[in-house]
């Protein structure tokens, strides 16, 4: 294996600190046996102001305590099901078997999971590759099951790929860019394994994945939290990898907003869907990656430079998102009554949004109680669509205030039919159709209304919903969603996505045995069984970041 040798990795099961859940009583979450979990103050709890450089505090001093050792189960046994007294659902065993079949090896070492193992599909396209974003739920499943090796190998392999020179035609991409996906080519005669990677130069649409680097950082933190092995994140290679990713998004330019400007198709929604500009998915991942880096960057000269920039950006970003992306009944009413063409610092309607551009559907969709981060905010443009990933990650990263997190959960409950329907979870709501679909998607036949990225239902999102539910103390919402998934997923062969207004139909071009549908289900189950896993992918609210919005109806009633 390339990269640093295995250091002091302890063979521990994946339990981690529960400190990030200190805000509420765990017992409320569980009608199941109460877990014996140590509560500790972790590094994540330290406020940003404490972290500004010059205080001379190390970044990792509490890492030592972020896991509690436990026995590892046999290789094929899901540890989480044996650890507690739950009767595992019959689907769980099938899911583990399928997940293991998707493992990709490089020189005999597991390095990732293939996107889909669909032998029936005629078109392979790039589904035989290891996608960075797709591997995240697989990685979490392995970590939760006490199998960190594949995650470590993946992190190191992708780090090597980051070092490649990346070109699209004659244009050289930024040094820090992480690949969307990679593939291992086996030559049985020469007995060699070769890697090929795609940074956007082969991808449909030729867009570089902005989310890959962020997921990489988030996964490095999950690995560290889960195993207690700090030797990996502390290696000069990992520190440099993080800094390179951060340089790409913290560089100064012409921006007037702290949000990150992106092209269409640069994330999970990897085709034109009108999400260019400042899409919520990227802003939430950006925020989470910044906070995760803050806990892992070393306080040396190079690290400190970044830490200072991150702290400033986090303050500005959370203010911007909580103020301008947030929509609830009150905010909608305010926007509806906006004056336009205001000039100067006193403007209320800062981005000059014309109230006539508010789509009709949002007036009916908005419950009296509840709210969400809208899809995009830029000059004279608010994309009012709901995007599940961005909202769930915003909760997990504590980009939302606790009140906003609750309001998002209220919205999901009161708009269950629209956002969940018969198969969790709609990637976006509502779908765009007719003329708008032609203009916005460029007549994309895969993204027709209520299909694929255009209002399709993606089982992979179940893990993020479950994590958000646990964090907000609403596990019953996750249970309801998991029940729905259990009625169909296995029977339908673990499809990539479902179509239709209620998500009743297996997606027109959906792959079967889509790995992240399988892994997403497993992660959701393990999170519910043992909520202490949440600490891997959740960050507690920074008490120093004060809510900026006045209390509105959705928070108080
Ligand atoms: C599709 C999805 C993308 C995913 C890839 C592999 O292109 O849009 O998000 O990473 O398939 O599953």
From TrEMBL:
What is its biological role? Invertase that cleaves sucrose into glucose and fructose.
Q: Which UniProt keywords apply?
A: Carbohydrate metabolism, Glycosidase, Hydrolase
Per the UniProt entry, the Enzyme Commission number(s) are: 3.2.1.26
Under which name does UniProt file this protein? Alkaline/neutral invertase
Q: State the Gene Ontology BP annotations.
A: sucrose catabolic process
Region annotated Disordered, chain positions: 62-86
One Pfam family name is: Glyco_hydro_100
Q: Which PANTHER family match?
A: ALKALINE_NEUTRAL INVERTASE D-RELATED, PTHR31916
Q: Which organism is it from?
A: Linum tenue
InterPro entries cross-referenced by the UniProt entry: 6-hairpin_glycosidase_sf, 6hp_glycosidase-like_sf, Glyco_hydro_100
Reaction catalysed by this chain? Hydrolysis of terminal non-reducing beta-D-fructofuranoside residues in beta-D-fructofuranosides
- Similarity comment: family membership: Belongs to the glycosyl hydrolase 100 family.
Gene Ontology MF annotations: endo-alpha-N-acetylgalactosaminidase activity; sucrose alpha-glucosidase activity
């Amino acid at each position: 294996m390339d990269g640093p040798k295995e250091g002091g990795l302890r063979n521990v099961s994946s339990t981690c600190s529960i400190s990030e859940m200190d805000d509420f009583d765990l017992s409320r979450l569980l009608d199941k046996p109460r877990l014996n979990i140590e509560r500790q103050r972790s590094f994540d709890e330290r406020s940003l102001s404490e972290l500004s450089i010059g205080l001379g505090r190390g970044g990792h001093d509490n890492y030592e305590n972020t896991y509690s050792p436990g026995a590892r189960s046999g290789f094929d046994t899901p540890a989480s099901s044996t650890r507690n007294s739950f009767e595992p659902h019959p689907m769980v065993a099938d899911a583990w078997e399928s997940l293991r079949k998707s493992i990709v090896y490089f020189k005999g070492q597991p390095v990732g999971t293939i996107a889909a193992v669909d032998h029936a599909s005629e078109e392979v396209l790039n589904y035989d590759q290891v996608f960075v974003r797709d591997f995240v739920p697989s990685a979490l499943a392995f970590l939760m099951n006490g199998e960190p090796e594949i995650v470590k190998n993946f992190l190191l392999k992708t780090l090597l790929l980051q070092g490649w020179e990346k070109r699209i035609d004659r244009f050289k991409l930024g040094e820090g860019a992480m690949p969307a996906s990679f593939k291992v080519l086996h030559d049985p005669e020469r007995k060699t394994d070769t890697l090929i990677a795609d940074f956007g130069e082969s991808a449909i649409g030729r867009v570089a994945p902005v989310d890959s680097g962020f997921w990489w950082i988030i996964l490095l933190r999950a690995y560290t939290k889960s195993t207690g092995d700090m030797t990996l994140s502390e290696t000069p290679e990992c520190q440099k990898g993080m800094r390179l990713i951060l340089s790409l998004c913290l560089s100064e330019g012409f921006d007037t907003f702290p949000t990150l400007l992106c092209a269409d198709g640069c994330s999970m929604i990897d085709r034109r869907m009108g999400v260019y500009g400042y899409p919520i998915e990227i802003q939430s991942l950006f925020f989470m990656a910044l906070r995760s880096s803050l806990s892992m960057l070393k306080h040396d000269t190079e690290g400190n430079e970044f830490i200072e920039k991150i702290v400033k950006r986090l303050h500005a970003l959370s203010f911007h998102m909580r103020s301008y992306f947030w929509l609830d009944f009150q905010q909608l009413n305010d926007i509806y009554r906006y004056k336009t063409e205001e000039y100067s610092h006193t403007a209320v309607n800062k981005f000059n949004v014309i109230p006539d551009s508010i789509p009709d559907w949002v007036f009916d969709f908005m419950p009296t109680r509840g709210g969400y981060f809208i899809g995009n905010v830029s000059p004279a443009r608010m994309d009012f669509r709901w995007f599940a990933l961005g909202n769930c990650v915003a909760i997990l990263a504590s980009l939302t205030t606790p009140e906003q997190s609750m309001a998002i959960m209220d919205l999901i409950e009161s708009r269950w039919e629209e956002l969940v329907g018969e198969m969790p979870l709609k990637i976006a709501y509502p779908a765009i159709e007719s003329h708008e679909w032609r203009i916005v998607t460029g007549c994309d036949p895969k993204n027709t209304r209520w299909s694929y990225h255009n209002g399709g239902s993606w089982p992979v999102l179940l893990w993020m919903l479950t994590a958000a539910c646990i964090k907000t103390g609403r596990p019953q919402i996750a249970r309801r969603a998991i029940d729905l998934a259990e009625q169909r997923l296995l029977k339908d062969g673990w499809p990539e996505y479902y179509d239709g207004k209620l998500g009743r139909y297996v997606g027109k071009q959906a792959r079967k045995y889509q790995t992240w549908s399988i892994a997403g289900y497993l992660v959701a189950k393990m999170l519910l069984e043992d909520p202490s896993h949440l600490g891997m992918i959740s960050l507690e609210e920074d008490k120093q970041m004060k809510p900026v919005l006045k209390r509105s109806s959705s928070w108080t009633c």
